[in-house]
Amino acid sequence: MTASVDTAPKTVEPLGRRFVALFASTASSNLADGILLVAVPLIGLGLTTSPLRISLLSAATWLPWLLLGLYAGALIDRGDRRRIMLVAMALRMVVLTLATGAALADALTMPVLLGLLLVFGAAEVFADTAAGTLIPAVTPRSRLAAGNGRLLGVQQVANQFVGAPLGGFLLTVGPAWAFGVPGLLCGVAIGWIGLGLRGPYRAGDHVRGVRVATRVPEAQAGPDTSDAPRVTPDTARTVSMGTQIQEGLRYLLGHPVLRPLVITGAASNLANTAYFAVFVLWLVGPTSAVGLSEQMYAILITTVAIGALLGSFLTERLLRRITETRLLAIVWIVNSALLAVPVLLPNAWVIGAAFVLVGFTNMVGNVITRAMRQRLIPDVMLGRVGGASATLMYGTMPVGALLGGVVGEAFGLPAVFLGAVAVCLIFVAYAMARVTPAVVARADADTAALEDAAVGTGD
User: Fold this and answer.
1) 60: which of 116, 117, 122, 194 is 20 to 30 A away, CA to CA?
2) Would you say 403 and 419 are in contact if contact means Cβ atoms under 8 Å apart?
3) DSSP 3-state assignment of 232?
4) Residues 264, 435: contact at Cβ < 8 Å?
């Protein structure tokens, strides 16, 4: 085939009404999450002063991902992703309604709160995993970076800028409000998905954001490699759940681009969780290195969100000027190095400026890697590969938190911070040595051939 040169200016595809519905649903549900992020620990603090019991609130939040992430991904590839998301969001609303009732009846004990959090977290695993598979189904291929940037940006705004202070305000009115308002917001999110996304959204139904009449045929269901499982939307519902989970793990760990990304992400999450689990001890209190008050600490942490919001809107523009692999290497290296600033220059103003860049580079990296995963994973496997990826990356976070405490006790806080920097830089070097432009181009070509075949079959 002879390539032709198109000198006409490129038109930017609109994100479309379906994306707007997903965006609005994401904003509503994350605003609910932001309220709960502040309210739940403070409610727990009113029930107990035990550090161990308070830490169980965080454990209850992450435990469902460890237990259900793989299963959720496989289930989402077997059924209607939109319907699964609606059911999961409805369960979230039911849990918050029960929590509101318990608060009104003054029956909100620590065991009750933990039980509600576990069920809420389990529903979130299914809702978030399903939402991740819907993004490439409703977003044009050429706008994946922009779409992911908008979604990650609204998550930051809803969680940090609006949800957090709103959660504190609602808690002063009463605990029932801190659960009731998020429950109503979950209802709003359900409405946006129910009315804005019509029809079924099964694995293989959409290619490049366009519904195809016939899903990917079996002979073309994956790249022609020995590691890629031969699976189709139809066979996906006839094989066992265990087989599907194995297929997702095998595809993820056998992929030349996805494997280095998920390994680096898991290592980075471990290091960053260790870092921030004890970071407050470095910043807050008269005997700390920086000497901030609790109020100033809260303000300082928001600088990360400011940088992240900027990154969510500027990533697409940066990608027009810098190749994605080069930009990814730059932001990962800068992000890792900046984590050493609080140790080397323990000044609140310097740390705040550095953390704006930390948030910015972290968001740019997240947008790039998220878009890469969405375009490199066949639609028929988005659920189980996404579930496997989330399980592997989130599974390191509780380990990292524990490691940060152990290392900090034994060797001091600077050892935690500088050790985290070293771990991040080592794994960034590992990823960049393997995720080269040539490797990504070959993986893109394999996926593009599959999508072209799927679209052609659907004509």
Assistant:
1) 194
2) no
3) coil
4) no
The Cα-based distances of 135 to 22, 180, 239, 270, 374 in angstroms read: 8, 28, 26, 27, 8
Do 54 and 48 form a contact (C-beta atoms < 8 A)? yes
Looking up tokens 């490199």, which residue turns up? 376
Of 145, 146, 152, nearest to 131 (Cα)? 152
3-class DSSP state of 197: coil
Distance CA 208, CA 140 (A): 6
CA angle 146, 150, 156 (to 5 degrees): 140
- Residue 207 sits at φ, ψ, to 5 deg, of -130, 125
Rounded to two decimals, what is the model's pTM? Answer: 0.72
Separation CA 74–CA 382 (nearest Å): 9
pLDDT digit string (tens) for 234-291? 555 566 778 888 888 898 999 999 999 999 999 999 999 888 878 878 888 888 899 9
